[in-house]
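Milestone M4 deliverable, item 7.
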Amino acid sequence: HVAWALGRAVEGLGDACRALGVPVVGGNVSLYNETGGTPIYPTAIVGMVGSVPDPARVPAAGFTGEGHAVVLIGAFAPALAGSELDKLRGRLADGLPIVDLEAQGAALAAVRDAVRVGELASAHDVSEGGLACALAECCVLGGIGARLDLSQLAREHGVEAALFGEGPGGVLVSAPSEVIDGLARGLGADPRVGVVRLGEVGGELLELTAGGATLSVPVTSARSAYERGLPDCFP
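Output delivered:
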């Protein structure tokens, strides 16, 4: 089972690398890391090095400015299948959503070009834990709150998937409103690149609205949970 799953993961990586034009020049694998009789997760990890034309234009990972607009960019379709939330619940998905690699490539190229212009204040990918966790990370890293409405995603994918669903291609960016307006106009010309306005940066709370309900968490509490994760697991 592990060998089959790892093989499929590598095949998927190959498809993605070819679609995105990303070379893989070497690799290593160890299948002998069992702990307590439990096999390792068949997950391939990729380390990459990129070339940055102008380091001064690289945006921060966390939010930086009061009043900055926050936008979700990318061919992002959150799903609970294979997510951290489903894993915590002990669920095993029958399959994963199909990924449109051409759309992913177009969206990532658009984000790359926007970053190189140098007007974005922050840019952060949506990864484990979904959009809610990525937004919390942006607040924790920047030390500032945000007021965000995920209702559009909740209508399209459901409230839980909007908050904690996972999938490739989602990038959170923030910048002054006029910069975001220009960015949205430019990206809107390509239907493969999704642009969803979520709200704005500001205050001391992370406020998320979805499906008629609002979740409000002090940034200090989110930071404490973030920093105490490993110490609490290994006292």
